[in-house]
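User: Hello, can you help with two protein structures?

Assistant: Certainly.
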Amino acid sequence: MKRLILAMICAAGLAQAEGEQAGTFDYYVLALSWTPTWCALEGDDRDSPQCEGGRGYGFTLHGLWPQYETGWPSFCPTTLRAPSRGMTGEMTDIMGSAGLAWHQWRKHGVCTGLEARDYYALSRLAYDSITRPDLLRRLDEEVRLPAAVIEEAFLEVNTQLEPDMLTVTCRANRIQEVRICLTRGLEPRICGSDVIRDCTSPDALFSPMR
């Protein structure tokens, strides 16, 4: 009955749920954020160290998100201990900041039912399972392109993926994220209909790494 109510809410346009039972979900979405876009829209205003030139951040791990077939849980009640500063600090090499690592645990990690250390370890495994196209890191000037070009670049270097297993999002007409759907065992799978919403811009801006 609880899942039926959730489905009805989702059909009405409210896809996100809060306070759901931890560990009850269907699959993961691995969200990879293009750092130059984040810096242009948010990070520069925050003077984030992630945006400093020469740091080498390209596609960073935004998060590993538990997902229902329709909708997703967040902020699930938990009695598990919050991550230490050491744990969040260890994630900066792939997430850009300890603050993001903390936020991802608080919003999404708690819904996995995993201990914080195990959630971060699983997130790193998921991140490492996907090859980020080196060609995109070598760009030295801004280009405008359809989001499909970014998707094709990922498909070319990740032969285990099929088109319906990932989506490319835009924000402010910039390439924002690549989101890849994975089973609970981190195997690629087809995305749910509420996830597979590709950016339709024919000329989204893709800025080079700093």
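That covers the first. Now for the second protein you mentioned:
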Amino acid sequence: MALLSLDSIDLIYQTEKSETEAVSNLSFTVDEGEFIALVGPSGCGKTTLLSMIAGLMKPTRGSVTIDGEPVSPSSGTVGYMLQRDNLFEWRTIEANVLLGLSVQKKLTDESRQYALGMLDKYGLGEFRSAYPQELSGGMRQRAALIRTLAFKPRLLLLDEPFSAVDFQTRMTVCDDVHSIIKNENKTALLVTHDISEAVSMADKVIVLTRRPATVKKIFTLDIDAPTPLKRRESPRFSEWFDRIWKEVSHD
């Protein structure tokens, strides 16, 4: 059984005067351990889909399930990483990483050790007492990811998490985030406008149509390289980029 299943999803926004169909008859599944990228024309509803998968919005019709159960924002099965790291500048990195656990009353000796262990594991242990402004953009994103993973979510949602950093930093951060997700054996769904980012990171790329969004095509990538940077060096990279670009740019 798939970890995540979207089955015949419709979403209609209604006002007093009109209704707008945002998503129409959309279905796809994500298996455990897969890294999936969602791409499509601007405004097609990619972030809206993430909100439904996180349980923050309900579809008008259809179902969204994780492990066969309807999604719920309180279940703790979904972790959500936003465009900005949202680290509090007046809190240390350790305090930032533990904040979510504390707020949700899930901060135990075990969860603390797990979160701080990941700081050590991924090169941030010596910066526990530092403040966010003392870290590079890439290190801040690593800390934000560890804060999200501290809950041990089954599914990780990434909403353009690299858009707030410059291009050179983005390349390194993509490698860092991809490495952590794969090392922790997490299932991830990335929303991005950057097709090269999708091709460099994902096992599969799902192309959405213009609004109302539905699945136009699903590509299973076969680039034999261990990291996003190495993938970009592969001859297959440009081939996949061109194929996906054509699907995204043509109705």
